[in-house]
Amino acid sequence: MICGVFIFISGICCSYSKNNLKRGLRLLLWGMVFTAVTALAVPDLLIVFGLLHFMGLAVLLTIPLGKYLHKMPPFIGVAAGLLLFWITYHLQLGWIGFSPQYSIELPSFLFQNNWLFFLGFHDSHFYSSDYFPLIPYIFLFWAGVCFSGVSLPRWTTVSHSKVLAFLGRKSLWIYLLHQPILYLILYVIFKV
Questions:
Q1: What integer pLDDT is reported at residue 27 of this predicted model?
Q2: What is the pTM of this model?
């Protein structure tokens, strides 16, 4: 749930970014750094296509498609994005639909290799300790992009918090540093 809200809000932020190309490439680069670090330092926890990889690619894909997403009435775009997210949520299990009883089984050849792992198609040997494939999460991201077109009541946007603005500008660094800091704290707690 937390990651879903984070992805949705990140989609909203695409509309407020000054340079989505730079933002997307930076996120993708940091994702690759995480892959390299986990491959070298903790190969048992290898991150192949984690949240940062997903976010970077989602931002880059939104650059050419954003104008179409913004032409859509916001509530229709949000509803369509959420519906597509729900329908494709179990893609990795080999089906799409509303439930196992009301679903379409996907062809097995899609799950016989790892060429399309970034889309959500992979074999049973694929592993990534942090894994957010484009399908279904891109639909949640795009629902956020569409939500940015919703006109909110003025009272929701009037106040400005310097602390929240600072945290918003530094959110990538907060994300990058929170895990090592938490691991260090837990390491100290459990060693004492």
A1: 95
A2: 0.85
- Give the angle subtended at the CA of 51 by the CAs of 118 and 86, to the nearest 5°: 70
Model pLDDT for residues 4-16, shown as the tens digit of each residue: 999 999 999 888 8
Sign of the C-alpha dihedral computed for residues 88, 93, 95 and 98 taken in this order: negative
Helix/strand/coil for 151: coil
Q: Which of 69, 50, 27, 71 is nearest to 129 (CA)?
A: 50
Strands in the chain per DSSP E: 95-99, 102-105
What SS3 string covers the chain?
CHHHHHHHHHHHHHCCCCCHHHHHHHHHHHHHHHHHHHHHHCHHHCCCECHHHHHHHHHHHHHHHHHHHHHCCHHHHHHHHHHHHHHHCCHHHCEEEEECCEEEECCHHHHCCCCCCCCCCCCCCCCCCCECCHHHHHHHHHHHHHHCCCCCCHHHCCCCCHHHHHHHHCHHHHHHHHHHHHHHHHHHHHHC
Tokens of 171: 């959110």
- The CA–CA distances, whole Å, from 173 to 60, 105, 176 equal 20, 41, 5
For 6-150, list the strands marked E by DSSP. 95-99, 102-105
Distance CA 99, CA 30 (A): 35
